[in-house]
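Researcher: Please predict.
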Amino acid sequence: MISAAAATTVTAHAAAAGCQVTYTLGSQWGGGFGANVAIKNLGDPLASWTLRWTFGAGQTIGQAWNAAVTQNGSAVTASNVGWNGSLATGGSTSFGFNGTWNNSSNPVPAGFTLNGVACTGSVTPTPTPTVTPTPTPGVPPVRTVRVFWLKPSDVANDQRYPDGIAKVMQEAQRFFQQELGRTFTLNSPVVEVVNGDQPRSWYENTPNCGEKYWWSVCNMQAELRRKLGLGAPDSRWLNVGEISAEGDGAGGGGGNGWVILSGHDADGAAGINGAMNRWYGGMVHELGHAFGLPDATSTDGTCMSASFYAYPNCHFSQAQKDGILGGRYGSFLS
């Protein structure tokens, strides 16, 4: 019997994410084999799942059960069937298949992704950065919300972007005060403009975080973390990043002390992509995720549901307020 298990937690999208996958080779015969794949969700609850991996020795999949499985070359995609798509935190499911091999080598796949999140090792928290008791010149005080506009190298500077993003953040600041009786502190200046190392097309077309939906924003987050020494999460600051890049995706989300948004949100904040209420509500929604809230399960009038599109006609429920104030970043509010 051959088995492989991998687990990790990652920040890259709108919710806390992590997974463990165990691939077990149950039986093997001339030209054929059977395998079982077990999935454990370590992150926020999932309503559906897609698992991907790549075979390394020409294996092919024939019959599968408990999952819809397709193969393109060596790349395999397995998605839930109707009854096993929902995975609670800590929840597990499994599926199996029969396949063919080359009668010489049948290695376990080297890596798996679940909904675009890599399962690549033991669960290891991001190291907590050291907190400096007194602010270093040029570095914002701790417990500040830092906001970045990353401008790709081939995008012209346009003051509408930092000015507009600042106004969106100030409206969100006002909303938190209204709802919670407390609010967060913004840096001064509110928006830090970061000149990107790469042209727009690089951020849009360089794979990162799995699905193309995430490429622009994950490439932005990686560059901000590298240049500015930011953690994910970071005990010093809650971070908001927007990039003037998007491509085929429409990436954006919040979680684990971060909001990461792509070109249409940056354009909206700059006043060139529709009514401002949509962008105010979207920022409140994603900041709710950054402060630790999950999506609401229905359009229920809270800003953590699709009701944020009707902003300012959405609110935080009492449970959501308690979740923010009692969460990792609750102490950032005063």
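Model: The first strand starts at residue 2 and ends at 10.
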